[in-house]
Amino acid sequence: MKKTLLILLGAALCSCSGTQQPYRLTGKIAHADGNLLLIGTHFNQMDTVRLTPDGTFTYTRTVGDPDFGFAYLPDKAFYQLVFIDGTTSQLEADADTPTDYHVTGDLEAAHEFQLAAMRRLSALDEQTYASFGDMQATFNRVSDSLLRGLETIEPSAFRTIERASIDASVSNSLVAYHQ
């Protein structure tokens, strides 16, 4: 009995101490002309990836806590990304049309949700409101709708950072209204 318990405890410890799988991004950026691609979560901490002559690249990094980030093709394009360890994404883009890009893979639904949420919240900032209460009620309705839709998006780590992002966007908009 003790031997079986020790074997089970050892197996549990081994599975818990396993190394975390990195985030992996591959892709192709047409018309990139073999430039460098900067990838990261903050402008002051960017990784540099050399694109092949046909614009393909591979990027792997252990990011720790899930985060939003981006890939930046200097003077040409900026692509928003979601970084979650253990996931794989593919970026397909054309440097000649920088706002038209697509992310597929494990985080495809997360990317689509994030972009749609940002567009929806940005559109609210462009509207005029009769009063602060009217604005607050509108933002709260949209926020509630987004948060309900967020519950179906995988992986769950994305839901945590996106929920915080939605809350921050609403809060910033309400504060800006007073200023």
Which keywords apply here?
single chain; 179 residues; alpha+beta; 4-stranded mixed sheet; 4-stranded antiparallel sheet; 8 strands; 42% helix; 28% strand; disordered N terminus
Task: Describe the largest sheet.
Answer: 4 strands, mixed
Helices and strands: which structural class? alpha+beta
Mean pLDDT: 88
Rg from alpha-carbon coordinates: 21 Å
**What is the string of SSEs from the N terminus onward?**
HEEEEEEEEHHH
Written description of the protein model:
The protein has helices at residues 2-16, 108-126, 132-150, 156-178, and strands at residues 23-30, 36-40, 46-50, 56-61, 67-73, 77-83, 88-94, 101-105. 21% of the residues are buried. A four-stranded mixed β-sheet has the order 4-1-7-8. The protein has four helices and eight strands, in the order H-E-E-E-E-E-E-E-E-H-H-H. With 179 residues, the protein is of the alpha+beta class.
